[in-house]
Predict the structure.
Amino acid sequence: MGAPIDLTGVSVHLGVPGYAGTAARVVWSYQGELPTTGMVLWSRSAADRGGSNAVQLGYKTLDGNQVAYFTFAGAKQQNLSGAPDVSVPGQVTAVLPSAAVAALGSEWHWKATVNVEAKTSIGAPTS
């Protein structure tokens, strides 16, 4: 496996040009090299104020290739088209669709992680 990834920050910005409604742009910032072997899962989980509605945005790679890009709410996974943007060194940028954001209501909290072969780095929200 390549060098470990250290999650250095995560930001969430509401409103994404080119997306209907109030989609959210999620940016994971990291140090290290993206592994070219093994499983890597980038995850951002959010819940409404009461904790009754939760949504996960996930991006998973195996041996450096995308195997999943999805949202997960309740017991249902929705596969997203396209792929997160990994063109900026030290960043992975993905979009949480507006329907998933709307399901959280106006007040919600979140956390983000990156999991490399069962070793997790947790990122504190930065915005």
